[in-house]
Every structure is written in C-alpha cells, then in structure tokens.
Automatic annotation (TrEMBL):
The active site is at residues 104, 165. This is Glycosyl hydrolase family 88. It comes from Levilactobacillus koreensis. Pfam families: Glyco_hydro_88. It comes from the Bacteria. Belongs to the glycosyl hydrolase 88 family. Gene3D superfamilies: 1.50.10.10.
Length: 393
C-alpha cells in the first residue's frame, strides 16, 4: 500500500528505473501498445501514408515523447531529450498533411513540442506548437461554436461532429494565447467548452461521447455512443476527459460554470465507482463483464488531483484529493508492472468496449500515471493543469 508523499516518490523512482531501460530500447520509435512479448510497437514505421489509420498522425503519438519529457524533467538525463527531439521531427511531418489531421493535434503537439518548448525554449518546438494550434483553431465551426473532431475519411459526413476528448485538446489553444498574446485561440477554446457544456452533460452528471451539429446552421442534431457500451451509456474515459477538461478550462478562464461542471461529473464518477473494484470501460456495463480501463483510472486520478486544487471549500478539496489518490494507489498496487518483462508500466487498459481486445497496455495510461505521481511530488510539468513554473514565457 502506498501511504504518503514519500511513497509516491518511491513509486516514481521505480518508474524512473524502468524508463531508463525502456527509453534505450525504444529509441525514437513511437509506441501505442506492446506486442505479445511485451515489446512496444511503433507508429512511425508501419509503412502507412500520413493520414491512414495508425499512421504517424495517429492521435496517441504525442504520449510517448510526453513521457520522455516527463523523464527529462525528472532526471535531467540528456538521452530523453535526444529521443524526444527525434520523435518530434517525425511528428512535424504530419503538419503538412491536413487530410490526416484531426482535433487530437492537441494531444500530439502539447505533449511533444509543447513540453519541449516549456523545458528547453527550443524555437522550432515553439513554431510547431503554434502551427498545430492554428490547425486546431481552423477546425472551429462558427455557426455551431464547436471544434470539428475528425475529417470524413470517405466514411461519414463528420463536418458537424465533436467529441468529449476535445476538452483536453483545447489546452493547446490556451497555450497558444499565452505564447503569442493573441486572444483568438483562447476565445475559440472557451466558446467550444461552452458548447460542450451545453450539449454533452446529462442531468445525472454523466457525459455523452460524440455529438453532431448541423454544420451549416450550428443546430444540435443528435449524439452517438462512441467507444462505450452503447448510445446513452457512460464511457469511463470520456467521463475522465470531461472532469479534467472542464477543470482545466476553469483554470484558464475562471468561468465558474466550468468548475461546477467538472465537479458534477466528478461526483457522478465517485458515485459510480462504489460498484466497482477497478475502473470498468463503461459504468453501465454488466458487473460480470471484466473489461477494465486503467487508462481511465490514470486520467481520472490526475483530473481529481487537479480538481481538488481548485476547490475553495477544504472539505471538497479533501474529498477529491483522497479519491484521486485512491485511484492512483489502486493502479500502483494492482495494475502496474515495474519489471523488465514488458515495456509498458500500466496494465489492463481498453480502447473501446466493443473492440476484440481488452485489458492490455495503452501508452496514455502510463503518461497520466506519471503525471499524477509528479503532481503529488511537486515535480509536474503541468501540461494541462496550472503550472507552478513560468507558464507565460
Ligand atoms: N480520443 C479517443 C480516446 O480517448 O480513446
């Protein structure tokens, strides 16, 4: 059992030791998951064209360089910087291919070039961040005041689609305003967050995954089920994105309704967890179904810590802090592998309820686990949350 700050530091030390080995093994590959032998895969050498599914523009490709920057911050070892910079040069290629891009340029570029610029003031990283933010801002639909999620890719008409995960990506826009002092980026982020708040949050505090608006008039059309159990259910990772995203938008704008929304979803999340020993893929899935999502647990852990820090009421702060720490403690006790038998740390994540594979390694679970531990040991890079360093560069 992890008990106090010193124990969080011990856990982080174990990760540091493992990452020292993993980073040399992985070099400048860009992993998403591990193969059956526990080796990381690579999303930068799959022989795919930019824009194809699982190619270089795959939405999770910022998380591994993000982990490298977390380790650079943690240890100061130059090798992390070297590997991360190589990956960033690969990711930069995606900026020239609009067709392959999507709203997840936030995840892709905040964690890679954004962290790079934060730590090293690398001018090329700065340019990439602003370039990505401009692409994200360009996805804003003026009539509906939302950021379009994906391109059509020849499948559906997705001109009016937006998704809850976007609440994390808009952090890139707030950053861009901080970096350039041009308010347009933050204006778009706030407008989008208000639209999401108005249409995604259900009465009980649960959150929809995908909503469609008429791209011409901006009118709300309908919602879709997405990666959870079914339409109308509560996909846990989406709930976690919402808690974190609204907390972060509150920090950036001080618009109190955002904090109230984050708390409403957080209260729903805590209530639902009473029925589960580990975070399921969907709170509405049958209890007998053992599909878990440790990534949702890790994201929620970091989100609850962030939410706790924003509370004026000490009791609420304590409740959210304790819950975040509990989620983290459970991951460390039951769902982490600190050995060298596999490249990943967190086990038992699931990308989607209806996928064939469940309870496996997914890269973003590791990123958020480390982020939460760094918050608890005052060493966080504060990518989403309020920074303790010099944010306004
Ligand atoms: N952005 C998609 C997901 O959370 O799986």
């Amino acid at each position: 059992m992890v008990e106090n700050k010193r124990d969080w530091a011990v856990a982080l030390k174990k990760i540091e030791q493992k990452m020292d080995w993993v980073a040399d093994k992985t070099q400048d590959r860009i992993p998403y998951t591990t193969d059956s032998d526990g080796n990381y895969d690579d999303h930068s050498s799959l022989g795919k064209q930019i824009g194809e599914y699982y190619s270089l523009s795959w939405w999770t490709n910022g998380f591994y360089p993000g982990i490298l920057w977390q380790m650079y911050q943690q240890t100061g070892k130059e090798k992390y910087r070297t590997y991360a910079e190589k990956i960033e040069r690969k990711l930069a290629l995606t900026l020239t291919s609009f067709e392959g891009l999507h709203h997840d340029v936030g995840f892709m570029f905040l964690l890679s070039s954004g962290a790079d610029y934060r730590l090293t003031q690398n001018k090329q990283a700065f340019t990439r961040v602003i370039h990505a933010a401009t692409i994200l801002a360009g996805r804003f639909n003026l009539a509906g005041r939302f950021i379009r999620a994906w391109n059509d890719e020849g499948v559906d008409d997705r001109r009016g689609w937006t998704i809850i995960d976007s609440m994390m990506n808009i952090r890139l826009l707030y950053w861009a305003t901080d970096l350039t002092h041009d308010p347009r980026f933050a204006q778009i982020a706030k407008a989008h967050a208000i639209t999401v708040q108005n249409h995604f949050i259900r009465e009980d505090g649960s959150v929809k995954h995908i909503c469609e608006f008429n791209p011409e008039t901006g009118e709300y059309v309908k919602s879709f089920g997405g990666q959870g159990l079914q339409h109308g259910s509560a996909w846990t990772r989406g709930q976690a994105w919402a808690i974190y995203g609204f907390t972060m938008s509150y920090e950036q704008t001080r618009h109190t309704e955002f904090l109230q929304t984050a708390s409403k979803v957080a209260d729903y999340f805590m209530q639902q967890m009473k029925g589960w020993s580990h975070v399921p893929v969907d709170f509405d899935q049958p209890n007998a179904v053992a599909y878990e999502d440790s990534s949702a647990a890790a994201i929620a852990a970091s989100a609850f810590l962030e939410l706790a820090a924003q509370q004026e009421n000490p009791q609420m702060a304590q409740t959210y802090q304790k819950f975040g720490e509990q989620l983290l403690r459970q991951l460390l006790d039951d769902r982490c592998d600190f050995t060298t038998s596999c490249d990943n740390i967190v086990t038992h994540s699931s990308a989607a309820y209806h996928e064939e594979q469940h309870n496996y390694a997914i890269i973003y679970a590791d990123f958020f686990l480390i982020e939460a531990l760094q918050k608890l040991t005052d060493s966080s890079l504060s990518i989403w949350g309020q920074t303790k360093n010099s944010e306004r560069i």
